[in-house]
Amino acid sequence: MAERSGGRPTGLRRPAVGRRRFRSLRARTTLGAVVVVLAALLVGAAAFVVVLRLVLLDGVRTSAESGLDQAAARVEADGVGAVRGYEDVLVQVVDDDGSVIAHGDDADPPALPTADESRWSHDGERWLLVAGDVDLPGGGDVTLVYGVSLEQTDAAVGAAVVLLAVGVPALVLVMGLVTWGVTGRSLRPVERMRNEVEGIRAARQDARVEVPDSGDEIARLAGTMNAMLDRLDRAAEGQRRFVSDASHELRSPIATIRQHAEVAAAHPERTEVAELADVVRSEALRLQDLVAALLELSRLDEGGTGQRRPVDLDDLAFDAVARARVRAGTRSGPDGVVHVDGSGIGPARALGNERVLAGVVRNLVDNAVRHAETRVVVALADDGGRAVLTVDDDGPGVPPGERDRVFERFVRLDEARSRDAGGAGLGLAIVRDAVRAHGGEVAVTESPLGGARFVVRLALGG
């Protein structure tokens, strides 16, 4: 446990202000630009100084070699005395044993180095020396040494180093300030958008971010953010509507059960136990189906289709047809019953969750039986590498303007296809979400029978 000092645990540390400051994009961008530019300028400055020194030394070397050639010509013509009178340069004539035979005014002994090229320092001044053998007029040869001062070269290089030492930091500072300002100006719309988004609350869900007219990435970001807010607004509105409709649907069977229970409690002599049991059982089944549908939609919303494996869609279709025939026999059409035809079901397999896909087929067939007049036709076929399931009925059909809305949750259409016919308004929503979760698509069109045709397309698998 941290020790306490002044009522505050010493083990807790507050983040430093400077540390927080360098977490900002503006500071990191400026710091990165300064480091990169500084490194580039330092490398460039060092290379410039090296190249400048080499160029200046090459010029001094050329001057020294030219002076050596001229002095050698004079010595070959006039003898060693010809070197006397040379000023501001070093000229010496050295014999074989290293003794100075003659020298210029500024080249007093001792003897200078006689290598082909060398550097020599004296009294704080540096010289570039070149040497060569010279034939004397009377015979024999000597070594002639010629030196040129490096003072101007060193002064020029030193001046360049001073200018770079002052100019590079100044340039980096100016660049850092400009980067800081430009970055801040560029990020100002982002900060404004952040404040605007932060100010959006539940009471102001229609508020949107102002899109600048710059046409750059910031403007596109604002447009994308507004599109995201629109999607979130639509999702929130759909969620509120879904919760409201679900609450209404749940209240309906509960209210029916409560009403009959209260009547039975108030007038037991007028209540048949069997009648009350039938009401409670039917409403409980309706409530059970509704809760199961809501749970299935919740799982699909979370992307949960469970483990996938090859599923025989024809088996699911035959099971749904057999189940529908039992249900269809209990209701009367104009000729007595609704006939469910499954003769068009062919073999097809899809990769998916068998329970979820069974619910898709069953909901479509039950929906068709619920709204058919006399006939329902179920077909399954392989069409170009995709399994195509079609369910036709001869009922009132779905108007073209409602064919997208029919798959939404708790959507009420006209009386002929309303939930009052027995459904809770969630079956087709489950179909759409389940098919999409399996990478397929579902649509409703006009049936050749005159009613509605629901078509499901799934990729074949296994």
UniProtKB/TrEMBL annotation:
<dbReference type="Pfam" id="PF00512">
    <property type="entry name" value="HisKA"/>
</dbReference>
<dbReference type="InterPro" id="IPR050428">
    <property type="entry name" value="TCS_sensor_his_kinase"/>
</dbReference>
<dbReference type="InterPro" id="IPR003661">
    <property type="entry name" value="HisK_dim/P_dom"/>
</dbReference>
<keyword id="KW-0808">Transferase</keyword>
<dbReference type="GO" id="GO:0000155">
    <property type="term" value="F:phosphorelay sensor kinase activity"/>
</dbReference>
<dbReference type="InterPro" id="IPR036890">
    <property type="entry name" value="HATPase_C_sf"/>
</dbReference>
<feature type="domain" description="Histidine kinase">
    <location>
        <begin position="245"/>
        <end position="462"/>
    </location>
</feature>
<keyword id="KW-0902">Two-component regulatory system</keyword>
<protein>
    <recommendedName>
        <fullName>histidine kinase</fullName>
        <ecNumber>2.7.13.3</ecNumber>
    </recommendedName>
</protein>
<dbReference type="Pfam" id="PF00672">
    <property type="entry name" value="HAMP"/>
</dbReference>
<dbReference type="Pfam" id="PF02518">
    <property type="entry name" value="HATPase_c"/>
</dbReference>
<keyword id="KW-0418">Kinase</keyword>
<dbReference type="InterPro" id="IPR005467">
    <property type="entry name" value="His_kinase_dom"/>
</dbReference>
<feature type="domain" description="HAMP">
    <location>
        <begin position="184"/>
        <end position="237"/>
    </location>
</feature>
<dbReference type="InterPro" id="IPR003660">
    <property type="entry name" value="HAMP_dom"/>
</dbReference>
<dbReference type="InterPro" id="IPR004358">
    <property type="entry name" value="Sig_transdc_His_kin-like_C"/>
</dbReference>
<keyword id="KW-0597">Phosphoprotein</keyword>
<feature type="transmembrane region" description="Helical">
    <location>
        <begin position="29"/>
        <end position="56"/>
    </location>
</feature>
<keyword id="KW-1133">Transmembrane helix</keyword>
<dbReference type="InterPro" id="IPR003594">
    <property type="entry name" value="HATPase_dom"/>
</dbReference>
<dbReference type="GO" id="GO:0005886">
    <property type="term" value="C:plasma membrane"/>
</dbReference>
<keyword id="KW-0472">Membrane</keyword>
<dbReference type="InterPro" id="IPR036097">
    <property type="entry name" value="HisK_dim/P_sf"/>
</dbReference>
<feature type="transmembrane region" description="Helical">
    <location>
        <begin position="155"/>
        <end position="183"/>
    </location>
</feature>
<keyword id="KW-0812">Transmembrane</keyword>
